[in-house]
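Issue 218. Parser rejects a valid record. Input:
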Amino acid sequence: MNKIDTASIISKKLRAIEGEQYDLYVVGPVRLPVELDGETKIFNWYSWMKKEKANGEQPLSTEQLIGELNKFHYADLQQSSVLVYGDFEEDTEALIRMHSICHTGDIFGSQRCDCGFQLKQSMRMITEHGTGALFYLANHEGRGIGLFSKAMAYILQEEGLDTVDANLALGFADDSRDYSEAIAVLKSLREHPVSIITNNPRKVEALRQAGMNIANRVPLWGEATVYNEKYLATKVEKSGHFERLLAR
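Output the parser choked on:
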Protein backbone atom coordinates (compact mmCIF):
# COMPACT_ATOMS: atom_id res chain seq x y z
CA MET A 1 0.00 0.00 0.00
CA ASN A 2 1.43 3.36 -1.04
CA LYS A 3 2.01 5.92 1.69
CA ILE A 4 -0.57 8.72 1.61
CA ASP A 5 0.77 12.26 1.36
CA THR A 6 -1.52 13.55 4.10
CA ALA A 7 -0.27 17.13 4.08
CA SER A 8 -0.59 17.45 0.31
CA ILE A 9 -4.19 16.24 0.38
CA ILE A 10 -5.29 18.40 3.32
CA SER A 11 -3.46 21.52 2.16
CA LYS A 12 -5.87 21.76 -0.80
CA LYS A 13 -8.71 22.44 1.63
CA LEU A 14 -6.94 24.32 4.40
CA ARG A 15 -6.63 28.08 4.72
CA ALA A 16 -5.07 30.30 7.35
CA ILE A 17 -6.63 33.60 8.36
CA GLU A 18 -3.91 35.72 9.94
CA GLY A 19 -4.64 37.97 12.89
CA GLU A 20 -2.58 40.08 15.25
CA GLN A 21 -3.01 37.91 18.33
CA TYR A 22 -4.08 34.61 16.81
CA ASP A 23 -4.46 32.79 13.51
CA LEU A 24 -7.54 30.87 12.44
CA TYR A 25 -7.18 27.63 10.49
CA VAL A 26 -10.20 26.77 8.37
CA VAL A 27 -10.58 23.29 6.91
CA GLY A 28 -13.14 22.52 4.22
CA PRO A 29 -15.30 22.31 2.31
CA VAL A 30 -16.40 18.81 3.23
CA ARG A 31 -19.51 17.53 1.44
CA LEU A 32 -22.12 16.91 4.13
CA PRO A 33 -25.51 15.35 3.34
CA VAL A 34 -27.99 16.46 6.02
CA GLU A 35 -31.46 15.08 6.74
CA LEU A 36 -33.91 17.96 6.99
CA ASP A 37 -37.66 17.36 7.20
CA GLY A 38 -37.40 13.97 5.52
CA GLU A 39 -35.22 15.19 2.65
CA THR A 40 -31.47 15.09 2.12
CA LYS A 41 -29.88 18.49 1.66
CA ILE A 42 -26.26 18.79 0.59
CA PHE A 43 -24.22 21.32 2.55
CA ASN A 44 -20.54 22.17 2.45
CA TRP A 45 -19.09 21.97 5.95
CA TYR A 46 -16.12 23.92 7.26
CA SER A 47 -14.57 23.86 10.72
CA TRP A 48 -12.00 26.16 12.21
CA MET A 49 -9.72 26.45 15.20
CA LYS A 50 -7.79 29.27 16.78
CA LYS A 51 -4.10 29.24 17.65
CA GLU A 52 -2.59 32.00 19.75
CA LYS A 53 0.69 33.36 18.42
CA ALA A 54 3.63 35.48 19.49
CA ASN A 55 4.47 38.76 17.77
CA GLY A 56 5.79 38.17 14.29
CA GLU A 57 5.04 34.45 14.31
CA GLN A 58 4.05 33.10 10.91
CA PRO A 59 1.10 30.78 10.34
CA LEU A 60 1.87 27.08 10.58
CA SER A 61 2.40 25.08 7.43
CA THR A 62 0.07 22.16 6.82
CA GLU A 63 2.80 19.75 7.95
CA GLN A 64 3.36 21.71 11.16
CA LEU A 65 -0.35 21.94 11.86
CA ILE A 66 -0.85 18.19 11.47
CA GLY A 67 2.19 17.55 13.66
CA GLU A 68 0.83 19.73 16.46
CA LEU A 69 -2.74 18.43 16.56
CA ASN A 70 -2.02 16.02 19.41
CA LYS A 71 0.38 18.40 21.12
CA PHE A 72 -2.31 21.02 21.59
CA HIS A 73 -5.07 18.55 22.50
CA TYR A 74 -7.54 20.17 20.15
CA ALA A 75 -9.94 17.28 20.65
CA ASP A 76 -10.49 18.50 24.22
CA LEU A 77 -11.58 21.95 23.07
CA GLN A 78 -14.81 23.14 21.52
CA GLN A 79 -14.47 24.23 17.93
CA SER A 80 -16.85 26.13 15.70
CA SER A 81 -18.04 25.28 12.23
CA VAL A 82 -20.19 26.55 9.41
CA LEU A 83 -22.64 24.83 7.07
CA VAL A 84 -22.68 26.49 3.65
CA TYR A 85 -25.50 25.98 1.16
CA GLY A 86 -25.58 26.90 -2.52
CA ASP A 87 -23.16 29.26 -4.27
CA PHE A 88 -22.38 31.20 -1.12
CA GLU A 89 -19.30 32.92 -2.51
CA GLU A 90 -20.87 34.46 -5.60
CA ASP A 91 -24.67 34.54 -5.22
CA THR A 92 -25.89 38.13 -4.90
CA GLU A 93 -28.30 37.28 -2.06
CA ALA A 94 -27.43 35.03 0.86
CA LEU A 95 -28.82 34.35 4.32
CA ILE A 96 -26.59 33.74 7.34
CA ARG A 97 -27.30 32.62 10.88
CA MET A 98 -24.85 33.06 13.77
CA HIS A 99 -26.10 30.25 16.03
CA SER A 100 -24.72 29.81 19.54
CA ILE A 101 -24.13 26.25 20.65
CA CYS A 102 -26.88 25.07 23.01
CA HIS A 103 -26.33 21.59 24.40
CA THR A 104 -29.73 21.36 26.07
CA GLY A 105 -31.79 22.87 23.25
CA ASP A 106 -29.98 21.68 20.12
CA ILE A 107 -29.24 18.13 21.31
CA PHE A 108 -31.86 17.28 23.92
CA GLY A 109 -34.69 19.40 22.51
CA SER A 110 -35.19 21.37 25.73
CA GLN A 111 -38.14 23.76 25.69
CA ARG A 112 -36.59 26.07 28.27
CA CYS A 113 -35.24 28.02 25.30
CA ASP A 114 -36.00 28.30 21.59
CA CYS A 115 -32.51 27.36 20.38
CA GLY A 116 -33.35 23.94 18.93
CA PHE A 117 -36.21 25.43 16.96
CA GLN A 118 -34.06 28.31 15.73
CA LEU A 119 -31.31 25.93 14.59
CA LYS A 120 -33.59 23.78 12.44
CA GLN A 121 -35.74 26.68 11.25
CA SER A 122 -32.74 28.70 10.08
CA MET A 123 -31.49 25.67 8.13
CA ARG A 124 -34.92 25.43 6.48
CA MET A 125 -34.87 29.14 5.65
CA ILE A 126 -31.39 28.91 4.13
CA THR A 127 -32.19 25.88 1.95
CA GLU A 128 -35.51 27.37 0.83
CA HIS A 129 -33.75 30.62 -0.05
CA GLY A 130 -31.14 28.69 -2.04
CA THR A 131 -27.95 30.25 -0.65
CA GLY A 132 -26.67 30.79 2.85
CA ALA A 133 -24.51 29.76 5.76
CA LEU A 134 -25.21 28.62 9.30
CA PHE A 135 -22.37 29.36 11.72
CA TYR A 136 -22.43 27.03 14.74
CA LEU A 137 -20.42 28.83 17.39
CA ALA A 138 -18.53 27.02 20.14
CA ASN A 139 -17.97 28.60 23.55
CA HIS A 140 -21.26 30.47 23.27
CA GLU A 141 -23.20 28.17 25.61
CA GLY A 142 -25.38 30.14 28.02
CA ARG A 143 -24.45 33.39 26.23
CA GLY A 144 -20.79 32.60 26.77
CA ILE A 145 -20.69 31.21 30.35
CA GLY A 146 -20.30 27.52 29.47
CA LEU A 147 -22.42 24.45 30.09
CA PHE A 148 -21.53 23.89 33.78
CA SER A 149 -22.25 27.50 34.70
CA LYS A 150 -25.41 27.39 32.61
CA ALA A 151 -26.65 24.51 34.78
CA MET A 152 -26.12 26.66 37.87
CA ALA A 153 -27.91 29.55 36.17
CA TYR A 154 -30.85 27.23 35.50
CA ILE A 155 -31.02 26.41 39.22
CA LEU A 156 -31.24 30.13 39.98
CA GLN A 157 -33.92 30.54 37.32
CA GLU A 158 -35.97 27.87 39.05
CA GLU A 159 -35.93 30.15 42.11
CA GLY A 160 -37.40 33.03 40.10
CA LEU A 161 -34.44 34.80 38.50
CA ASP A 162 -34.59 35.50 34.78
CA THR A 163 -31.83 34.64 32.31
CA VAL A 164 -30.01 37.95 32.66
CA ASP A 165 -30.17 38.17 36.46
CA ALA A 166 -29.03 34.55 36.85
CA ASN A 167 -25.91 35.19 34.78
CA LEU A 168 -25.19 38.39 36.70
CA ALA A 169 -25.69 36.64 40.05
CA LEU A 170 -22.96 34.16 39.09
CA GLY A 171 -20.53 36.98 38.33
CA PHE A 172 -20.85 36.90 34.55
CA ALA A 173 -21.84 39.58 32.08
CA ASP A 174 -25.34 39.47 30.64
CA ASP A 175 -23.87 38.41 27.30
CA SER A 176 -20.16 37.70 26.84
CA ARG A 177 -20.28 36.13 23.38
CA ASP A 178 -17.65 37.18 20.86
CA TYR A 179 -18.31 37.02 17.11
CA SER A 180 -14.87 38.07 15.84
CA GLU A 181 -13.76 34.58 14.75
CA ALA A 182 -17.01 33.88 12.90
CA ILE A 183 -16.85 37.26 11.17
CA ALA A 184 -13.28 36.60 10.02
CA VAL A 185 -14.33 33.24 8.56
CA LEU A 186 -17.39 34.81 6.95
CA LYS A 187 -15.22 37.43 5.26
CA SER A 188 -12.94 34.68 3.92
CA LEU A 189 -15.92 32.88 2.37
CA ARG A 190 -17.90 35.82 0.99
CA GLU A 191 -17.44 39.49 0.06
CA HIS A 192 -20.98 40.33 -1.04
CA PRO A 193 -23.69 41.63 1.33
CA VAL A 194 -25.59 39.18 3.53
CA SER A 195 -28.96 39.10 5.25
CA ILE A 196 -28.75 37.88 8.83
CA ILE A 197 -31.35 35.67 10.50
CA THR A 198 -31.63 37.02 14.03
CA ASN A 199 -33.73 38.85 16.57
CA ASN A 200 -30.61 40.17 18.30
CA PRO A 201 -29.45 43.71 17.38
CA ARG A 202 -26.04 43.00 18.97
CA LYS A 203 -25.28 40.47 16.24
CA VAL A 204 -26.24 42.96 13.54
CA GLU A 205 -24.06 45.65 15.12
CA ALA A 206 -21.10 43.29 15.57
CA LEU A 207 -21.09 42.48 11.86
CA ARG A 208 -21.51 46.09 10.83
CA GLN A 209 -18.67 47.23 13.09
CA ALA A 210 -16.47 44.56 11.50
CA GLY A 211 -17.14 46.03 8.08
CA MET A 212 -19.73 43.54 6.82
CA ASN A 213 -22.42 44.84 4.53
CA ILE A 214 -25.73 43.78 6.10
CA ALA A 215 -28.45 43.96 3.47
CA ASN A 216 -31.33 42.93 5.71
CA ARG A 217 -32.37 41.38 9.01
CA VAL A 218 -34.73 38.39 8.97
CA PRO A 219 -36.63 37.68 12.22
CA LEU A 220 -36.75 34.20 13.75
CA TRP A 221 -39.41 33.90 16.43
CA GLY A 222 -41.44 30.77 17.08
CA GLU A 223 -42.14 27.78 19.32
CA ALA A 224 -43.18 29.80 22.35
CA THR A 225 -44.28 27.49 25.19
CA VAL A 226 -45.19 27.72 28.86
CA TYR A 227 -41.62 26.61 29.60
CA ASN A 228 -39.82 29.41 27.73
CA GLU A 229 -42.31 32.27 27.97
CA LYS A 230 -40.26 34.15 30.58
CA TYR A 231 -37.04 33.42 28.67
CA LEU A 232 -38.43 34.93 25.47
CA ALA A 233 -39.86 37.94 27.29
CA THR A 234 -36.48 38.60 28.94
CA LYS A 235 -34.79 38.61 25.53
CA VAL A 236 -36.98 41.55 24.50
CA GLU A 237 -37.26 43.39 27.82
CA LYS A 238 -33.66 43.12 29.07
CA SER A 239 -31.44 41.97 26.20
CA GLY A 240 -32.82 44.39 23.63
CA HIS A 241 -34.09 41.83 21.14
CA PHE A 242 -36.54 43.02 18.54
CA GLU A 243 -40.19 42.46 19.41
CA ARG A 244 -41.83 39.18 18.56
CA LEU A 245 -44.13 39.42 15.56
CA LEU A 246 -45.42 35.86 15.62
CA ALA A 247 -48.50 35.01 17.65
CA ARG A 248 -47.99 32.65 20.55
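Fixed in the parser; the record now loads. The mean pLDDT is 87.
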